[in-house]
Structure formats: C-alpha cells, structure tokens
Design goal:
125 residues, alpha+beta, five-stranded mixed beta sheet, 2 helices, 33% helix, globular
C-alpha cells in the first residue's frame, strides 16, 4: 500500500469518526473520549447519555461492495470489551453500557452510514 493511499485512508477514517461524533452529539450524547487508549487497545468514541456509556467502534469503507460491519470481528470485540472493562472500573458510580458500531460507506462527498446500537454482547462474560 502506498504512502498516499495510507494517508487518504487515515483522512477518511478521521472523517468517519468526526461524523460519528456529530451523530451522537445530535442525539443528545456527550462525547467523553475520542481515540481512548489503554496499552494496545483503542476505543474510537466513548459517549454518554444519562447513566449509559456507549463504546463506539467506527468503521469506514470506500468501496460500496464492502460491508464495514464485517470488519468488527471477535478479536476486535474482545479488545473493545477489555478496554471498556478498564474504563468502567476507573469511573465512580454504576453505569449501564453498550457497544455500538458506526459504519460508513462511500466517500466524503457521497456516503451513507448506519448506526448499530447494542451491536454485540461482551465476549468477556
């Protein structure tokens, strides 16, 4: 993969994360974290509304024949769940939580997105 393509993909990924954050804000959520990291774990967006914390994985694909949701495999789910577990243990209080996927397809000028709320249960249970 060329450097130019890597940079273009990173830019498109940031665009998707910005759109996801805007979506959650427009729905009344507060964005607590973006690109939260713990060791080798990264959670794209952590949002909160009331007593509910949402851990959001953002996936973007430029090809219309690619389903970004398919990129959230069991390994990725486990990683996010481990990070969520650490994050929740550091917070004071008792919170509800869920895992969402924000899937964007297209390009910056012509795109569609889908938000899958409560996309999966924690594979750590």
């Amino acid at each position: 993969m060329s450097l130019e393509r890597k940079l273009r993909d990173l830019d498109f990924g940031r665009f998707a994360e910005d759109l996801a954050a805007e979506h959650y804000i427009s729905e009344g959520y507060a964005i607590r974290e973006r690109n939260w990291r713990f060791h080798h774990i990264e959670i794209d967006i952590i949002a909160q509304m009331g007593n509910t914390i949402v851990f959001v994985e953002v996936k973007a694909r430029s090809g219309r024949d690619q389903n970004p949701v398919e990129a959230v495999n069991m390994r990725k789910m486990r990683s996010i769940a481990r990070g969520a577990d650490v994050y929740l243990k550091c917070m004071r209080g008792d919170y509800e939580y869920r895992y969402d996927i924000f899937a964007l397809t297209g390009d910056k000028e012509n795109y569609t997105y889908e938000v899958i709320e409560d996309a999966y249960l924690s594979p750590l249970s």
